[in-house]
Task: structure prediction
Amino acid sequence: MYPKRFLNFLMLFLIPHFVTAQTFTISGNIKDASNGEDLIGAIVTVKGQPNKGSSANTYGFYSLTLPAGDYTLIYQYVGYTSKEESISLQRSQTLNVGLAPTSRNLDEVVVRTERADKNVSSMQMSVFKLDPKQIESVPVLFGEKDIIKTLQLTPGVKAAGEGNAGFYVRGGAADQNLILLDEAPVYNASHMLGFFSVFNSDALKDVSLYKGAIPAEFGGRGSSVMDVKMRDGNNKNFGASGGIGLIASRLTLEGPIVKDKGSFIISGRRTYADLFLKLSSEDRLKNSKLYFYDLNVKANYQLGKRDRIFISGYFGRDVFGFSDVFGFDWGNATATIRWNHIISNKIFSNTALIFSNYNYRIKLQFDGEDITIKSAIQDWNLKQDFNYTLNTNNNIKFGFNIIHHTFKPGSITVGGNSNFNNQQLTGRKALEGALYVQNDMRITDKLGVQYGLRYSGFNFMGDATAYEFDKDGIKTSQRKYKEWESIAYYGGFEPRIAAKYELAATSSIKASYNRNYQYMHLLSNSTTSAPTDLWVPSSNNVKPQIVDQYSVGYFRNFKDNMFELSLEAYYKTLQNQIDYRNGADLIFNEEIEGELVYGKGKAYGFEVLVRKQTGRLTGWVSYTLSRSLRQFDEINNGSEYPARQDRIHDLAIVAMYDLTKKLKISGNWIYYTGSATTFPSGKYVVNGMQVPYYTERNGYRMPDYHRLDLGLTWVTRKTERTERSWNFSLYNAYGRQNAYTISFRQNEDNPQQTEAVQVALFTWVPSITYNFKF
Amino acid sequence: MLLASCEKVVNIDLNNAAAQYVIEGAVYEGIDTVEVQIAKTTDYYGRAPQEQINNAIVTLSDDAGNLTNIPFAGEGKYLLPNFQAFAGRRYDLKVVINGNEFNASSVMPQAVNIDSVSVEFKNADFRAAGYEVAARFTDAVNEKNFYRLVYIINDTLQNTPNDLYLLDDKFNDGKPIRADLFRRFEIGDKVEFELLSMDEQVFDFFTTLNDVLNNQNGPAPANPNSNIKGGALGYFATFTSSKKGIIVN
Result:
């Protein structure tokens, strides 16, 4: 008989070349072998053919299609030991892989991320990814690790200011950021009037902030998406971790439900400033309350080979009460059920049902009155996402999203015999939907394109009363609509395109264009974000915001991926921006839409980020040069003016250094030019008082802001499974009095004299936290 | 959470804008003096008193067809004594200065009277023990009412920016209102209240004036909404007034 090899050789010549080789698919899960967490973005490549590969999706699922043959596959994730698997691919198969974390070499910070060169090779630009573990040492106010505050130290992201948890991305407004916690939108991401964010980083696995080139699967806000993913919980062993600090304490419990099949994680945090109030001898203070809490719960279970269920929830509340006279509480609650289903070895499906609620409540009891004021916004959301890995060159995502919004802007309920009246503002409802499709295509080894299209629509409907106004904001008519009756409909296409070209193994250029529609808007009475800020829908009066962004960038890694450099420039146009008439009454106003005026804006800038990811010294330097401008016919006589968030220079230096195996020091230095602001250019007397006289809007600048924060982490005990450490931090180490507000008023002693008065919030703020893990 | 914040006077460089006219005019119900003051804005840090306008032509008319001239009375003031004004009438003010014309209208509302002034002793809490004094009146039902409460303590008019006390009936239409002074008094203190009622445009001026004086951290500070057309700052108001006082004993 002829040898098998000879026959195969003959077949090659005899069979016409146009018969394609048969392909098979390897698919499965990539997880952390020590605790079962999915490794998002872990990559699998073919040894010897580095350009054939795939990566794990949000749920750790990967799919790789290759021609029949023998291969060695390499599974990798930075911070983990790579694994090789030899396979003979004669039919499609499932291959689940667990990667072991590299034993922590205490001389080095281990950054967990999908690939060491992703700065250069990844399709995605304009994104900043944070590993919550990485930020453990970044010193922050009150010692509470805070991902939002840490993201404000990156290019293009500006803090709204002290005492304000809002942030602005690339010149956009504070309501243009979509904040998602395990796919559920979070409406108010701050506690204590902005001093803390709602995210307890002990419970988090991954945080990505998309500032541009937003993938088609996301939509609804104009400027950014902050995608926060919770950990699933250790599915092999029980564990607990937490910390005790001056202001707050936290505790996380996790463990398997059934080993290797399911796990849970519960994470909570509470502040206790008010426990000190209980020590007071003054009765009213004793009965006062001042605290907030966060509770994250999540459970997941693998039902068979193809299905997995997740249930997660977040409950957070701020409570402020003064004796029994005044009470104010507010908070978010979200709940999500998700079902992962592997339809085939190439198609992955995720179905999610999400509930989200944000509300506040004020109670007043004085002089025999018993008044309750409430406001709420509630969403029911159904999402379906498909991920179709067509082949190694094409990864397609498509799906739809429907959200039913219910707005209850305000109700006042009074007790009997009250000197106030019951009132209720008209409720509103809306249906927001989207369809999207996107392909991540590898054209050549060097050139890749991500192109996608999203169609979004918004139906504003009853049961509600809708108003019409003239150009001066005076009501001209009103009409009542029935439940589900459409009052206004808006919709449009949102193209999302990005391209990447690798100039060399260590450098690439990228460009992108995207359009985002935003149908919900946040109305705010003040410059500080307040819990009473109101989310309103687009309507017969309010059009959706439309944001178009173009960006280009150059990316380069140095010294074997130890240093990452990214340079990006962006240009953004904003349509249908909202501002207020002078003296607008935003409080409990049924005809609030009459107080709004509309205009447009533009923002452009240049960002530089240099990041060091490995070694004893890690951190980054971030610099942004940018402008953000607005133009409204009713404001500033129709002339273009700088938006409040227009800050020309913004610099942050973040450094963490391992002094010894047990001692790590860290520091941030932040500098930014002051926000644009309106100061007077004269004064006059009216009603016997000195009054400042204003001319142009935002024609002045607040003083420059800079501060230094220092931190020290001292690890007292560390073994394979346990860890104890102390963290000391000093916020604003050189005590600069940065201006929080500048007001102009008459001198208290000498009313003929007028002066400018600055209020600064924080000078030195030290903090101590004790952290444990076992 | 009650961290001490730091407050200090700072030097901020400000531009000096071109001067604008400032007109302040008020008509009270009944037989009273109509007073109009006209001046100009000055530089913010300037110490000199503002420039007064002495060559304006000021006229007052109403919707019943009357027209009166308000004569110049020195130092930027224009006074018309013994003028009888009626609630429910619309009054128009016209000011002409060097060829610039400014017009304003205001409708005098019906009077709302102070029913009584109450005195209540309160124990010490955050403030020292003492007497709380409040003006009590009943809001007119089924109409929008706008009030300003002026108060004189021991014969001294309280007129710092923090004393601007404005009320409307958005939440308590038709109900009894208790306007408290948020401070404590001692025996022998004399407190006099004047409750002014005004129309919506004048109230809008005073609330936006309050924003400029006391709340410069709203979305954006801007000049108060004036009901004067033509580009002048200030306001023209028609008031009805009710006075009542008490001596704490």
Chain B touches chain A through 64 residues (CB under 8 Å). Residues 200-214 of chain B form the longest helix (15 residues).
